[in-house]
Design goal:
transmembrane helix, transmembrane, 2 domains, binds zinc ion, alpha+beta, 6-stranded mixed sheet, membrane
Length: 219
Amino acid sequence: MYLCPECKSDHVEKTYSIGLRVIVCIILLFIPYGILICWVPFVFPYKYICYLCGTETVNDQMLQIDWREREELAKEFFRFEEKIDPLLGEWIEDQDGRIFKVAKGKGQFFLVEVKDIENVTTHRIVDYIEEPNTSEIKASSKVGVNYRRVLQNDPVDFSTDISTTKPDLTDLGKELLTEDEHKHIIDRDLDLNNWLKNLPKNQQEINVEFLLDQEKTAS
Ligand SMILES: [Zn+2]
């Protein structure tokens, strides 16, 4: 079983299809001596894309685990869920006054950040360190396409005036936000910052630290 080396998700898929390689192979067969090199498309390493964190990885860098390691990983996930459970569905305000909702969607844990109606985003919760005084959530903003969108912000067609639309929740969004929260977020007459400030928050003092993406640390 292959896992993403960055987030250990098994929601990974090969990006270069067999079909494309077959087509290139057939094209090669039609060029002089192409028959000698028509196998070349099949030896390029396959790339995997992770839907959860968006990382692209060649196959020899993927994490490969057996059923025992898989069981251990499932236990680790369960322990993590137990630890973070009291925060799920709660709004928190961090050390910098930023407001997030802690929520679970599609089996993963996220911080939902609401900036405005066009900017409702998710950050992956990577770790949660529980302390009696100040706890800490480590999060990453590197989120794959399938786990990033909370609201369906695409205009239906060019005649749609985006400034008046009331976007629906995505399937992920339905798990992360309540109908009432959604109703407020898409209300363009509402002072969103004021609404966020006045939401009941979890009383636990929590620092939120964002991990730098690998690309950023490498540069
Ligand atoms: Zn990943």
